[in-house]
Design goal:
Blueprint lengths: L5 H12 L4 H27 L7 H11 L3 H13 L8 H19 L4 H16 L1 H21 L8 H16 L4 H8 L1
């Protein structure tokens, strides 16, 4: 996640999940999905740049290099969610990624601060120890999102295009070099 987006994602998530005011929830969700979309796009641009040229061949080569990465796959999920009605089940993978980005950023920036040395280092180490569990949780929540969207197809609030794109996302995650292990563990 882009560091500038981390506080926004946390704040908009809290406002979205509050049960008091429905209009605030809808407003926060619309802002949240845009922040997630733009932060994922920024991650792709930072890591891989733009295509060498804007010819079809250059774009194809760039896509072949970028699409197997988790950043690109999460960008596609965020893009699909941006056009759909609010779905709380989309948030857990992004929130887990945000928390890991936040803790890594704080470890890098505040590593020598006494308060970080006293409390933050323990949180950082615990999160690093549980990284595999967090990635497994992300795989579980991604697959659960796919099934929730399938189960919702016969009902009035359905989102067939979002369901289709989510299942394409799951297919890519199943064959992704960095997520395949977790998705195969969940599916078996």
């Amino acid at each position: 996640m882009a560091v500038c987006a981390v506080p926004q994602i946390v704040v908009f998530s809290v406002v979205y999940l509050q049960p008091m005011h429905r209009a605030w929830s809808y407003w926060a969700y619309s802002k949240l999905r845009m922040v997630i979309l733009f932060s994922q796009g920024l991650k792709i641009q930072t890591a891989h740049g733009f295509p060498a040229a804007f010819s079809l061949e250059a774009i194809k080569q760039w896509l072949m290099r970028v699409l197997p990465t988790s950043d690109a796959q999460y960008f596609l999920l965020a893009f699909a969610a941006a056009g759909a009605k609010p779905q709380t089940a989309v948030l857990p993978p992004f929130l887990v990624l945000t928390m890991y980005s936040l803790v890594s950023f704080l470890a890098e920036v505040c590593g020598n601060h006494p308060l970080w040395q006293r409390h933050g280092v323990h949180v950082y180490r615990k999160m690093q120890d549980k990284r595999q569990v967090a990635l497994g949780f992300n795989a579980q929540s991604e697959i659960a999102l796919g099934f929730l969207l399938l189960l919702g197809l016969p009902f009035p609030g359905r989102a067939p295009m979002f369901a289709f794109m989510t299942w394409q996302f799951l297919r890519m995650r199943y064959w992704s070099p960095d997520a395949a292990v977790y998705h195969r563990q969940v599916r078996c």
